[in-house]
Design brief:
single chain; Rieske Iron-sulfur Protein; about 25% strand; globular; Naphthalene 1,2-dioxygenase Alpha Subunit, Chain A, domain 1; alpha+beta; 3 domains; 13 helices
Amino acid sequence: MVNLRRVPHPISGTIYESLGDGLVRVSRDKSDSYGIFKWDGEWVEGDVTQADPALLLYVGGPDLPDDHDVLWQMADAGVHDGSAPVIAPFGSRLGDVTPLVGAYTPDKGMMTPEGMRSSGYIEPEFYLDNDRRPELIPDAFRAVSPMPGGPIRIPTAIYHEKAFHDREVERLWKRTWQMACREDDIPNVGDYFVYRIATLSYLVVRTGENEIRAHQNVCLHRGRLLKDCSGIKAREFRCPFHGWAWNLDGSLKEITTEWDFPGVREDAAQLPPAKIGTWGGYVFINPDPDASPLEDHLGPVMIDFYRKFKLENRFKQAHVEKVVRANWKVIMEAFMEAYHVIATHPHQMLLSGDCANMRYDVFGNWGRAGILSAAGSPQRGMAVPRENALAHYHASADYMREHLRGLVGDEVEQYSDAEINDGGSFNHLFPNICPWGGWARISFRFRPNGDNPNESIMDVMLLVPWPEGKSKPAPAKLRTLGADDPWTMAPELLSLAKILDQDIMNAPSVHAGLKAKQPPYVWLSAYQEGMIRNFHQNYDKLMDIDPDKVIEGVQEL
């Protein structure tokens, strides 16, 4: 079904209208001037010869079924594979609201006690101090920790040179905590999940009702992978090549014709293990036997922030992975700042602001962005007085509380206005997972695609709130997309799919630019890209690299 669209550009007001078959008409208001473009940016005809590529993609590009183009956090709790309409309240579609259009106005910023911030910034403490249920607010919501320092240079070599990819395998993926799967992916004893990261492969297996283990997924005879894909109700891990077998706990079960391998049993007695940790329904592994506990990696602020949101109760209503032709860090960094919204997601500005007034904090391995951000659009001169912002804050909490009541019942009464309103804090846990905050449902993961530093795999999960103690359906099956497949081929992602297509549109060009750029570094800003700076600080430490020496070409790997 073709979903014809007609929307104004949020800054110019120019009308973008789908003509079908991938064509978009771009016409100026009160003028006969127009241009027709292909959705990928190619001009076809008319005197308007330039157009916004992100809005061309949104209006005329690969699309969702019309009844699936709803805000993902407002949908019901089903698995929305395109076979049935999505139930969502009014206000969940772009067409439900009056679009916000305003001319571009440079955001000159302002000085605050915390440093320079957007001219539209309202500190979250204002909302917290006026919360109608202040006694319910977790301490983590009041924690303040912006990334210190100013803009920094990042060497481009770390994104594409094979030497850095190989160093990541040894110093990052073999030594740090990383999310492998959800506990619901392996609900029964014998269920196992094959977790791949770069050149490494692990078996994550449930060995008891409350016990999960992880082993290297490699036969200790000739090195064949023991399992090529995930499975259920295994009793052993037997190599398909020569039949050597290990028990679920990784202990050796059998060497076929062992008479021909005298003295080998002791060496093959146990599949090399990885440490296991669980949090919020996620299963983490760490191949380093000397690793500190997962809780130390997460940190107390992160644990407190998510504690009441009960991520372990969530139902996985969607899981999609896609190959992207760019390094995993290029992709991930696009989801660690909102600075790109004005250029990459113009249609979102028709619904709300430009996100220049976001709040960013970092706490060790965890970064948080967007908590209780002010409304308005500083880059379009749309300021929101504090009293209006507070009224919107309370009204939004009332609306969302009733929506969430339909999902988790009276559990909503356990939450403050701040927690109810946290529907979009986009957070990051080092090295490669982004579990969004509050009720946003989103969880991203980014991995290198095998041994290729020029490709990555991006995972997207939607985790819908689910009532305490109520049995959950089986989690949604994984859908896999190739590098040339649009995210809209996964209708279960709802409107998020079209946003992801805009984000990924930039990635291959960024990766190509990083290979070509001279001088060989890029800049990260002091505040809005602070979470990315925090990632690189942690990355440099684990990788044992000095970015300035890499840029100067004096550090050899």
